[in-house]
Design goal:
Elements lengths: L1 H26 L2 H22 L7 H14 L11 H4 L8 H25 L1 H7 L4 H24 L5 H23 L4 H19 L2 H4 L4 H19 L19 H6 L7 H12 L3 H18 L3 H19 L19 H30 L2 H20 L5 H4 L5
Helix pairs in contact: 1-5, 3-7, 3-8, 5-7, 7-8, 7-9, 8-9, 13-16, 14-15, 14-16, 15-16, 15-17, 16-17
Length: about 400
């Protein structure tokens, strides 16, 4: 028992010792300033929206969707490693303390996500649904549902087939949707209590017996842990070189035309390399598209033209920071250094690729501003975003590699 406890503490300390190094780089970067500016900006607008919220605003539906997603999502953090399937598998019966610590640790983190989300929607909740005891009871109810979901997730990891895990997740999704809808629709207390009783019965009668029917799947635990670690590494990789990040390459033949559109011709080595890297490697393309969509949504819904301009510049800057990681994507490969090409051409290629991507983003933001505002602000959004993209592609995207040292 003591050895299992010590192993847990050692694994947790080892992870956070490494994570703190990356967090320092993230906190010392300009990204935090951008997020802080966005937070202050949205706080002011959010307060105005709550005060002027239309009577027909679908608040119950919005809260139901948000919390159904957050309650259903989430994994158990175990800090297991690939070698454990060999060395710890024989001691599985003595690892109860270790996995109980994992459940407690994950419960605290997952509960904190629920609290943060509920505090974020708190002004709307108190404006339309209730205050005082109703507010705190709703939060307590959501935390209890989240704990129930985590217990179910732990048992679901014993299932081998993905289809079985997905069907269990779908069942939890349905239960969470019904429970949160009744909560935000101000159903009677007895009905909410009945939902909690039903969830308890389902866990005792369906999920908990999985522990007796199926053994613990160590390969599944390792897979989940690896996914969570890689998620953090992908975030940190936007600010420094992460040696542990495993590069994933996707074929994406249907986007081959985009390589040439970005200037990736086979005669120009680095243009072609960066274009294919952006389209196929890691999640550069996905991050670019997500930022474009989120920034476009802000520009679409914000009422004032200067707000649209501020959002366009902010998301152009954030996108620029993400694209800057292309500069050291191939830094660990010795084969790139064999190219008989001057280093200046590498820099020119990165400038060319990022400039095209940022100009495309400026056009999208400009069109949205014209459609939802007037021509003047649309032109301002287009010109300002394009100028920021032009300046950043020649300067800011090249500072990343020299600015931060590799964390070991």
């Amino acid at each position: 028992m003591r050895q299992a406890q010590e192993l847990w503490e050692s694994r947790r300390h080892q992870y956070w010792s490494e994570a703190r190094g990356y967090l320092k780089l993230i906190l010392n970067s300009g990204f935090v300033i951008s997020v802080y500016f966005l937070f202050i900006f949205l706080t002011v607008y959010y307060q105005q929206f709550v005060e002027q919220m239309p009577a027909d605003f679908p608040l119950v539906l919005l809260l139901t969707v948000l919390f159904t997603w957050r309650l259903t999502a989430g994994s158990i953090r175990t800090f297991v490693k690939p070698a454990d399937i060999v060395f710890l598998l024989p001691y599985e019966t003595k690892m109860t303390v270790y996995f109980n610590q994992a459940l407690r640790y994950s419960s605290i983190w997952q509960a904190s996500y629920i609290v943060l989300l509920f505090m974020a929607v708190g002004p709307m909740f108190t404006e339309r649904i209730g205050t005082g005891a109703a507010f705190w009871l709703a939060l307590l109810f959501l935390i209890l549902i989240k704990m129930w979901n985590l217990l179910c997730v732990w048992q679901e990891q014993r299932l081998v087939a993905k289809g079985e895990r997905y069907s269990n997740m779908a069942l939890r999704l349905l239960i969470n949707a019904v429970a949160t809808y009744l909560l935000f629709a101000q159903a009677t207390v007895w009905l909410i209590v009945a939902i909690i009783v039903l969830m308890t019965i389902l866990y005792k009668g369906y999920w908990q017996p999985l522990e007796k029917k199926h053994s613990l799947k160590w390969d599944r635990l390792i897979e989940v842990e690896n996914q969570m670690v890689m998620f953090f590494y992908r975030i940190a990789n936007a600010f420094t070189d992460v040696p542990q990040l495993r590069n994933k390459v996707r074929e994406r033949h249907y986007l081959q035309w985009a390589v040439q559109s970005l200037g990736g011709k086979k005669g120009t080595v680095y243009h072609y390399l960066y274009a294919r890297t952006f389209i196929r490697a890691n999640d550069y393309l996905g991050t670019y598209l997500r930022l474009a969509v989120v920034g476009g949504l802000f520009i679409y819904v914000l009422p004032l033209g200067w707000m649209k301009l501020a959002m366009a510049l902010l998301f152009t800057h954030i996108t620029m920071m993400q694209l800057s990681t292309l500069s050291f994507h191939h830094s660990a490969s010795i084969w790139i250094d064999l190219y008989p090409i001057k280093p200046e051409e590498k820099k020119q290629a990165l400038t060319y690729i990022t400039a095209r991507l940022l100009f495309l983003l400026a056009i999208v933001y400009g069109v949205l501003a014209v459609v939802t505002s007037d021509l003047l602000y649309g032109v301002l959004v287009l010109i300002a975003s394009a100028l920021l993209g032009l300046y950043g592609s020649q300067t800011l995207v090249h500072r990343k590699k020299g600015k931060y040292r590799r964390v070991r």
